[in-house]
Amino acid sequence: MVRMLVVDDEIYALKGITQGIDWSDLPIEDILEAEDVTEAKRLLEEQNVDLVISDIEMPGLNGLELLRWIRDHRPHTLTVFLTGHARFDYAQEALHNGCFDYVLKPVDHDALKVIVERAIAEIGMRKERQKIEETVDNNRKQWTSQLPILVERFWQDVLAGRVRLSPDRLNRQLEYYDMPLTADSRILPILLSIEQWNVELDARDESIMEYALRKAAAEIILGEWPGMALQDRNELNMALLYLREGAVVNRADLLKRCGEYVRACNDYFHCRVSCYVGEAVGINELVDAFERLQQLERSNVSAPQTVLDSLASGQGTANPTGISLPSFIDWGMLLDNGGYEELCARIQETLNNWQAESASRESLELFQYGILHMLYQAAYRKGCSIYDVFTVNELTDAQAIRSTQQLAAWAGKMVSKMGLALAERQRDASAVIAKVQSYILDNLHMELTRDNIANSVYRNPAYLSRLFRKETGFSLSDYIAQLRIERAKRFLVDTNDKVSNIAESVGYVHFSYFAKLFKKMTSLSPQEYRKKNQTLH
Fold first, then answer.
1. Beta pairing, strands 51-55 & 78-83
2. pLDDT tens-place string over residues 420-457
3. Which fold, 167-309?
4. How many angstroms separate the CA atoms of 17 and 51, rounded?
5. Are the CB atoms for 273 and 192 separated by under 8 Å?
6. Rounded to an integer, what distance in angstroms lies between the CA atom of residue 216 and that of residue 268?
7. What is the pLDDT of residue 343?
8. Are 270 and 214 spatial neighbours (Cβ–Cβ below 8 Å)?
9. Is the N-terminal amide bond of 106 cis, ω within 30° of 0?
10. Nearest to 355, CA basis, from 276, 300, 410, 314
11. For FRET with 531, which of 102, 129, 491, 507 sits at 20 to 30 Å CA-CA?
């Protein structure tokens, strides 16, 4: 729908156009009126007007001045002028300044309506063209905003070994992603190894902080050099420095920037980071180059927060000899006996010595496996599941063996957690057993089953049976039988009740079973025991 404005200083001419012509068959939603240019400008500023029909000759500001104003302030508005034969030069100037068309006075209403109809069609086409242009512009902006993500995915595919392209296809891909590279360009990879966070972070916060570290790497390490900081599909962080044909990077400057980045991570991002600087390789060689950096990272267990140059000889190697493992059996006994604090001190002392001896990656892995085996054995001996104490992530923490300090922190945390859990479990077990014993004493005259005893303390029946035997040395059934016979013995001595009544009062419905069990446990029948021990007359 179109909004139209008619401007004429002659009121009859104005009304003749707005009211004397039947506009109902055209898509016009509103017709505004103005008697001079000043009022027309006000309406144009207040409302979106698509079409202006204006007289050229008016007192004060004329139609040509209105046209120039519309061209500067409302360029999408079309203008149709009304002019007399005597001033045809006005119409020519109006057309020169962008007027859509003109009508000679006196106005032929039918001719004016035809011109308005053409103007409305032009307005429709312009709006459609504008809509298309806006769509294209929005798509272009969206593509531009998404381009860094698409480039990161391209490198993730390269590092995952999914991209092995011919030079021609690789060139097309690089051009498509607007990357300043060709198939002959070289890439210098830098592995950003996050060794330890100095603050507690949940998974979401850690992901946010890693993103911040990559942004910092782009600013500090890459700086004005072309390249990108990204995370691969295995969540390893890196920076890729782009080197076009013949380009050479100042390696000393690069290593210096990496050192500044390591210090910035410690000072501002609360984490310890090392940089492993690779060699410049072709795009299709990047997977192997990055694997070499990971091997360099794995071998570095004694030099945290450092910059390692893969081209420097002897860097990142560790001495695999001269390391002796502790006795994890002795350590397990210490843990069983509640000495987890002493055990933590021994772990710290051992790994401090290992750091001085440049322990190998394999040695740290063996130590981690030994600690895990000790924890599993301790849980088994105490009759509990390891997963009642630890999460799967805690048990499978691959970051723990990145350095002796991280391994010491991980092992100390795990041992302390297990020690506290076992101590708490012992207290809980004693409390549960006391409640079970009290329940049994209060209900000896009732039928006692393993299930209703377990329900009284909200425990699994099988688990409770094992726990009761472990804590008291008796099975539930033996313990109940012993209490019942002891109570029966007391009733036999202290009362003259019939033996069958006594049997029933201690929970035995079948007298024959009671008599048989009594004799088995006392070597006397109930009657013989009463006769031998009763003093009542």
1. parallel
2. 888 877 666 677 888 888 899 899 989 899 889 989 88
3. Alpha-Beta Plaits (3.30.70)
4. 14
5. yes
6. 10
7. 93
8. no
9. yes
10. 300
11. 507
CA 18/CA 33 separation, integer angstroms: 8
Q: How far apart are CA 285 and CA 164, in angstroms?
A: 10
- Residue whose C-alpha is closest to residue 155's, from 219, 218, 232, 242: 232
Give 3-state DSSP helix, strand, coil % of the chain, rounded to 5: 60, 10, 30
Question: pLDDT confidence of 141, banded at 50, 70, 90?
Answer: confident
CA–CA separation, 442 and 527 (whole Å): 26
Element (H, E) at 527: helix 526-533
Domain spans in the chain, listed from the N-terminal domain onward: 2-129, 167-309, 328-427, 443-533
> For residue 227, is it left (φ>0), alpha (ψ between -120 and 50) or beta?
left
Contact 15, 35 (CB under 8 A): no
**What is the rounded distance in angstroms from the CA atom of residue 276 to the CA atom of residue 254?**
11
- The arithmetic mean of pLDDT across residues 123-151, rounded, is 86
Look at residue 317 in the predicted model and tell me its pLDDT.
Answer: 39
State whether residue 337 is helix, strand or coil: coil
- d(Cα 28, Cα 505) in Å, to the nearest integer? 102
| Sequence-distant (≥ 6) Cβ neighbours of residue 328 within 8 angstroms | 370, 371, 373, 374
Mean pLDDT in residue range 148-153 = 90
Instruction: Give the separation between CA 216 and CA 210, rounded to whole angstroms.
Output: 10
Exposed / middle / buried, residue 74 (Cβ in 10 Å: 0-12, 13-18, 19+): middle
The count of residues in the chain is: 537
Choose among 487, 439, 436: nearest CA to 466. Answer: 436
Predicted local distance difference test score (pLDDT) of residue 314 = 45
Q: Which residues of 454-481 are buried (b: 16+ CB within 10 A; e: fewer)?
A: bebbebeeeebbebbeebeeeebeebbb
Q: State the pLDDT confidence band at 301, using cuts at 50, 70 and 90.
A: low
Place of tokens 């063209």: 129
**Type of residue numbered 424:** E
For residue 49, the number of C-alpha atoms closer than 13 Å in the C-beta half-sphere is 26
Residues 520/529, Cβ–Cβ less than 8 Å = no
One CATH from 3.40.50.2030, 3.30.70.20, 3.40.50.2300, 3.30.1330.30 for 2-129 = 3.40.50.2300
Would you say the CATH fold of 443-533 matches that of 2-129?
A: no
Q: pTM for this one?
A: 0.49
**Which CATH number is associated with domain 443-533?**
1.10.10.60
SS3 assignment, position 182: coil
pLDDT at 40 over 70: yes
The tokens for 400 are 């723990």
Percent of the chain predicted with pLDDT > 90: 46
The residues pairing with 55 across neighbouring beta strands, listed in sequence order, are 82
Q: Give all strands (DSSP E) within 301-449, no chain letters.
A: 307-309
CB 37 within 8 A of CB 79: no
Average pLDDT over residues 7-35: 92
Q: Is 168 exposed, middle or buried (0-12, 13-18, 19+ CB in 10 A)?
A: exposed
